[in-house]
Every structure is written in structure tokens, then in C-alpha cells.
Amino acid sequence: MALEKKFSLCDTYQLDELKKCMEIEDETFSVSIKVCEKGKNNPRYEIEGEMTPSEIMRFVDERKAALHSNSQRDELTGLFNADYFEKRIATIDRSEVLPVAIINFNINSWKFVNDNFGDDESDRLIKIIAGIIESEAKPYFVIGRMDGDIFGVLIPMALEGEAEKYVESVVSRCNDYEDSVLAPSVAAGIAYKTNIEQKIEDIMSDAEYEMFARKYEMKNTPEYTKRLEHGLKIAD
Length: 236
Fold this sequence. Notes:
- By secondary structure, this protein is α+β, with helices and mostly antiparallel strands.
- It has two domains: about 10-70, no CATH class; about 80-235, Reverse transcriptase/Diguanylate cyclase domain (Alpha-Beta Plaits), CATH 3.30.70.270.
- Helix content is about 50%, strand content about 20%.
- The protein has a four-stranded antiparallel sheet with strand order 4-5-3-6, with helices on both faces. A two-stranded antiparallel sheet has the order 1-2.
- Strand 4 (about 140-145) and strand 5 form a beta hairpin.
- Helix 1 (about 10-25) runs antiparallel to helix 2 and helix 4 (about 110-115) runs antiparallel to helix 5.
């Protein structure tokens, strides 16, 4: 039997409706399911074939759990997404903890990688750097992907020098990363919330300013350009 009605796999209400339909069915259905990343046509996974109502119901429950997780997590990196990161900012502001270190990371020359090596490699670069940022962090750090190639990190009740040491370790890990094509590199800026009347969102611009100043310095060094372009020889 073919289930003719279409249900959105990104709509929890429609998923509940599909589950209700299955509760009164006892036949096997022929199903075709495709789930794509937002803005892309190629499916992340596909399910084609026969499924019993109980199998469909189990799939619905798994899909709802994934949607709940995705409401907090960036799909590419697994870090907090921009919306949830902003919620954590508001929570930390309300908690009135001090000081709070605010760090902005920006991937250097992400566009260069995208233009010369394509989407797959530029996505891999994002995942590599996200992994380094996360692995060097302590459990209480709050980390989010704020935009395509920009990450934010909050350190509540930061110890003296803790943010600076963390940034140094991330930069060092990126510079030491060996890859035949990619040359991971980040610019970072640090600012501090030291007064409970301040808002983290307002201070982030200071971290962003420092980040872009360091980015300019790094990109104008011959060593950086040489390292960045090493992958072009492999591509040729």
C-alpha cells in the first residue's frame, strides 16, 4: 500500500500526525523518504522500500529527537548554533557572573579555500577548526558557530590569563595541523565583561574589532601566504 499524503520531516506537528495515522494501520507501506541539509538538494540520507507501521512510528520518534537536537546544534560542526548561542548569552547575562571572557574566532581565507577547492573542502576546513576550538576548550566554555566562518566562545568566571592561553593553544593547533590541501588558520579577538550592567552582546564588537585587526596582520605575512597556497600545487 502506498501512503499518498506527504509529510514534512522538519515539522514536528506533521510528524505527530503521521504517527497517529500509523497507530490505526496494520499494513506494510511502500515509503520514499529523503532528508536534505538546509539549502542543499543532495540528500544526507534516503530511505526507500517497505516499512511496517511500527517501523514508521519508530522512525518518527527518532526524527523528532534529531529535530530537538538540531534546534540547539549547528548541523555541520555539532557546536551550538547561532540562535541557541544567543540564548546562552542572555542566560549568562542574567546570572550576573563576572568576569566573562568573550572570544571571537574567524577562519582565515575561508573564501580562498571555497573558490579554489570547492564546497566539500571549505566545509571540511570549518569542521577541522571547529573540532580544534572544541577540543582545546574546558567543559564549562560555551561555544557556538555564529556565522559561516565565525565562532564565539564565552568563558564565565574566567581566570586571569585563561582566555589568552586558550586562544594561543587554538592558534598553535591550527598552525601545526598537517594536511595535503588545507592550511587551517584563525584570527582571534578577546574582550571582557567586568560589570554586571554590561551586556555581552555589546562587548562582542570589541572582540570582533581585535579579531579583524589580527586577521589583517596575519594575512599580510609572506609565511601565511606561502602556507595557504601549498594546496594549489596538489590541486594542479
